[in-house]
Specification:
alpha+beta; Cytochrome p450; 5-stranded mixed β-sheet; two-stranded antiparallel sheet; binds protoporphyrin IX containing FE
């Protein structure tokens, strides 16, 4: 057994400031300078352990416990996404799992295509630049609202979209800004949070009641929750909808910003994707069955998620000592794994920094935990197939209608927040196909 290398910071403060300002740079440096298991010195806040090698990631995710996400629970309620490991989490996981079965999701494709087409028809114009961050957020929010309520429901979609859009920004700000005004202060943002969360809860609650009276047949999230609700109160179901909203919107939206941006920079891959779409889908509306036959959009999304995983780090607490590659992490250790760093680990990936979707088409073998954009183990993302469906659909529909030209020499950095976002937001030029 060997001692765990320490990445030390200044006395008392430790690496805290660096952690707040540039966590990804700090993790990357930790691996480069200290190896695959590192103790990060957070000064008075106590140590945080970081593990980067796939085998170590596996051990941490299979053995660690996810703790409370206290702030998120206060802001959004006690749904699956904010629940700590344990019995209540298990009960919620069993409720949500059936909603994400592949055949159910494939049947949702027309519901998702509606808001996507609405955006492309009204706001995307050839010859103009498009702000991908704003657009993908609007589109994924609209798709989520549609997937939840369906077409038949008498729901104020505009209010639901606006409230969700605001809440995503508010939560980001609360979690990732160094100094925020206390939430009890009547600042404009705090007041709006209270009105919007109440409005959204009411919209979801009313739709639940309406659906209970007149059960629907659409494969929406709401119908799924009602079908499998055994023992769940209305209030708990509202929490679950909010949990899906928050876990599944910003993440997917950002993943798509990166995917479209990387495709705009890599014309050859974009052409390969377009050729496949032409061949398999032509000008038809993409359906679940057609999308399943496409390989390149899926590979492009996978590769973007490798380079820029929206959920760039996961935290766990260890209840027992854990041997990781000859280092023993003590019981109680707060531990972090970073998909961003492991996805670019030079021992695992060839040309780790290059965008090469073909690596997903060639049957290349690698460690199961070398790639975990959706997490792994018990808490693995319940919505990963839905996210992939949205990704396939957006890349396919956009390829049918537009070519994206990047802004020359546009620098792209990253801003770690709820999801890892590009800064500045890419604004490609829309060209005719
Ligand atoms: C590209 C898009 C997405 C990414 C990168 C992503 C990533 C993740 C990751 C890394 C986790 C594990 C969290 C942990 O271990 O603590 C997770 C969990 C979760 N995700 Fe996703 N997600 C995405 C899309 C979605 C969508 C579309 C939904 C729902 C419609 C969703 C719902 C959830 C839920 C409910 C959990 C909690 C699972 C549990 O704790 O059992 N996600 N997601």
């Amino acid at each position: 057994m060997s001692a765990i290398p320490v990445f030390a910071g200044p006395p008392l403060l430790g690496l805290n400031l660096r952690f707040l300002r540039d966590p990804i740079g700090m993790f990357s440096q930790a691996r480069r300078d200290h190896g695959d298991v590192v103790q990060l010195d957070l000064g008075l806040a106590g140590p945080l352990h970081a593990v980067f090698h796939p085998e170590g990631v596996k051990r941490v995710l299979m053995n660690g416990r996810r703790t409370h996400r206290q702030l998120l629970r206060e802001l959004l309620g006690k749904g699956l996404f904010t629940s700590p490991s344990g019995d209540d989490w298990g009960r919620r996981r069993r409720l949500l799992t059936p909603l994400f079965r592949a055949e159910r999701l494939a049947a949702m494709t027309p519901l998702l295509l509606g808001p996507l087409d609405e955006a492309l028809d009204t706001r995307w114009r050839t010859g103009e630049r498009i702000d991908l961050a704003t657009e993908m957020k609007r589109i994924t929010v609209a798709m989520m609202v549609e997937a939840t309520f369906g077409t038949g429901a008498d729901v104020d979609r505009t209010a639901a979209r606006a409230a969700l859009d605001f809440l995503l920004g508010y939560v980001d700000h609360q979690l990732f800004t160094f100094a925020t005004a206390p939430r009890s202060w009547p600042t404009p943002a705090n007041r709006r949070y209270r009105t919007d969360i109440a409005a959204l809860r009411r919209i979801i609650g009313d739709a639940l009641v309406a659906r209970t009276r007149r059960p629907g047949t659409e494969p929406t999230f709401l119908d799924g929750l009602l079908e499998h609700r055994a023992g769940f109160s209305d209030e708990e179901l509202v929490d679950e909808v909010l949990s899906i909203f928050i876990a599944g919107t910003e993440t997917t939206g950002t993943a798509l910003v990166w995917a479209l941006h990387l495709l705009s920079l890599n014309g050859e891959v974009a052409e390969q994707l377009r050729a496949e779409v032409d061949d398999v889908v032509g000008q038809q509306d993409p359906t679940g069955d057609l999308l399943r036959k496409l390989r390149v959009p899926r590979a492009a999304v996978r590769e973007s998620l490798r380079l820029y995983p929206p959920a760039w780090a996961l935290r766990r607490v260890l209840d027992e000592p854990l041997d990781v590659g000859g280092h023993v992490l003590p019981a109680g250790a707060r531990t972090i794994v970073s998909s961003y760093v492991t996805h670019r680990h030079p021992d695992v990936w060839s040309t780790p920094d290059a965008f090469l979707p073909e690596r997903w088409l060639s049957g290349e073998e690698r460690h199961r935990f070398a790639y975990f954009p959706f997490g792994a183990g018990a808490h693995q993302c319940v919505g990963n197939t839905f996210a992939q469906l949205e990704g396939d659909l957006v890349l396919t529909r956009v390829a049918q209608r537009f070519r994206l030209d990047p802004l020359p020499n546009q620098p792209t950095g990253t801003k770690p927040a709820i999801a890892l976002t590009p800064v500045p937001a890419p604004t490609p030029l829309l060209m005719p196909v």
